[in-house]
Amino acid sequence: MTTEALPRPAELASLPHSGLSVGEFYSMHFMGALIPLTAGLLVYGWRAAGTMLLVCGSTAVGVAAWRRIGPRGAQLSYPHSLWLGFLLAMMLPPHLSTDEAFGSPEAAWYILPAAGLLLAMLLWVLGGLGAGRIHPVLVAYLIIAALFVHLIIPHRALKPTRLLLGDVLNGEVPRNVIGEAHYSNSEPWYKRHIDAKGDAEYSNPASEALTAYTNDREKLAHRWLPIQSLVRDELPPMEDLVFAGHPSPIGTGSAIAVIIGGLFLLYRGLIDFRIPVIIILFDLAGLLILPTPALLGEHTQWHWIVSRQPEVGWGTGITFANYELLASPVLFMAFFLATAPPIRPMSQGARVLYAVVAGSGSAALQLYMSVAVGPYVALLLASLLTPALDLWFRPRAVI
């Protein structure tokens, strides 16, 4: 890779395929991300494409302006910036591409160009290509999530007969499911018999039901809810999270598509396999070990390793952990964000510790903060340790 592409020599040495230019390096990342993007476009339709175009286009406009400002501007690269804009767009729901927000008379489309312009500004502030040690996409997303917490919750997916060309906002909202989520005895999305009215069906995302359960919000409704009932009645079929067909951000709707895209990056040698593998394993381990409610009610029962409780069992405990993993953006974070060259440590030993912190933190923040946002916060915290890890694991000269 050329010196113009990566001005930091240490980071240059740590990158695979050092003969690639910046454009070639990120175009190969783009090819891997096309797989989950394709799944998202199929299930969320043309509004998902509009979301991608608005965010990426505004990112390019913002970068064109900030490139003119000082020496920091000279570090901004269009291929790198567009790749980050592409990632940010995949982390957002498709319904924002509208002039009328779902459930609100206010327009929502302005969030998308604002997100791209915010990302361009953060790229300049945090450092351009090869210079910033904090992922600007994470910061941009967390700011958006904090400002528009309710607007970015997805609620719709296209029906199997309306794929790709359907309108994700064209569909009725059943009165009996607003604010609730009942999926008992339902078949997977691709097998369900769905009436022909409208292009999309409404449901609440699994991430919201899981967050409500582990944050004791159900107590406010004076409900008696054991973890078995949560898994059986309050969550969609797991196939919907694996293959898509459930409301989610554009790039995280299909777990299998995210994994295939990540495997492509591994095959091309663009990312270190230790990072995603360790993050996923420690996230699952944390979800199985950390205190989890076995029962919500007047007296909520929290237990370490809840699967060991006789009334829960390992089958329910592991199923709960799998739902937490698949309903969250952990897979997307592990393959496409945590492996970014600027924020990952340079040595292999440091990367292992970095991934352990990110995976363990993801599990804790999913359980006690938010399933949809927790993994991103965990990665941001882990990336703050990268400069210290690079110092602790710095190779020493042999005398």
Chart the SSEs and their pairings:
Blueprint: H1 9-14, H2 22-44, H3 46-66, H4 70-74, H5 78-90, H6 111-126, H7 136-147, E1 156-158, E2 200-202, H8 206-214, E3 225-226, H9 227-233, H10 238-243, H11 255-267, H12 274-289, E4 292-296, E5 301-303, H13 313-327, H14 330-337, H15 348-368, H16 374-384, H17 386-392
Antiparallel strand pairs: 1-2, 3-4, 4-5
Helix pairs in contact: 2-5, 2-11, 3-5, 3-6, 5-6, 5-7, 6-7, 11-14, 12-13, 12-14, 12-15, 15-16, 15-17
Q: How many strand units?
A: 5
> What is the helix/strand order?
HHHHHHHEEHEHHHHEEHHHHH
Q: Could you report the average pLDDT, rounded to the nearest whole number?
A: 85
As laid out across the biggest beta sheet, the strand order is 3-4-5
What is the third-level CATH name, the topology? Ammonium transporter fold
Poorly predicted segments: 1-18, 101-105
Share of β-strand residues: under 5%
CATH architecture: Orthogonal Bundle
Q: Give helix % range.
A: 40-55%
Q: Measure the end-to-end span.
A: 31 Å
Assign the CATH class: Mainly Alpha
Radius of gyration: 21 Å
Q: How many domains make up the coordinates? A: 1
Shape: globular
Structural class: mainly alpha
The total of helices stands at 17
Largest sheet: 3 strands, antiparallel
